[in-house]
Write a structure and sequence with these properties.
Length: about 160
């Protein structure tokens, strides 16, 4: 009986001290939380991503798991980003990409800036542009997500052959 107790204790101790797997995309504290209180604001910008002429599907339930909805999340694959927050703060397009990468545990999905989206890099033959409601916006990941739901905001990210 003593031998069994020692073996069980050793196994439990080993499991307790094993390194925990970590997510490829850690989130800052303001994103790493479930919305639990009354909403401060609620909006629904539409995100469209085109890579080399093809639409890129934005998955269902980004930022949602087990009844927890983060401040930025999707419900379906239409490209609607739900900005539903109980915090009085601004969110950016880059915040959504961080949540996406964290949700998928894939660092490549968190990459969006002026020189790259996912694994697609700007080079001599490829460009990356962003428009907000049809107007070019050079802020890329710093584009603010709207706080009001009254106006429709459409953000289009296009990566593909460079045009002269």
């Amino acid at each position: 009986m003593t031998v069994v107790a020692v073996i069980i204790t050793a196994i439990v101790g080993a499991v307790a001290f094993l390194p925990r797997s970590s997510n490829a995309v850690p989130l800052p504290s303001y994103l790493d939380r479930c919305v639990t209180g009354s909403l401060i604001y609620h909006s629904h910008p539409n995100l469209v991503i085109n890579i080399n002429g093809a639409g890129y599907t934005i998955p269902t339930n980004i930022g949602s798991e087990g009844g927890c909805h983060r401040s930025l999340h999707t419900h379906d694959a239409t490209g609607t980003v739900h900005v539903e927050t109980d915090q009085d703060r601004d969110y950016t397009l880059g915040d959504f990409f961080l949540i996406w990468g964290n949700w998928a545990n894939d660092a490549n999905l968190a990459i969006f800036n002026s020189t790259q989206i996912f694994t697609n890099r700007v080079d001599a033959s490829h460009s990356l542009t962003v428009t907000v409601n049809g107007t070019p916006d050079p802020r890329f990941q710093m584009i603010p997500l709207p706080k009001t739901g009254g106006t429709t905001t459409t953000i289009v990210i296009t990566y593909g052959p460079a045009t002269s």
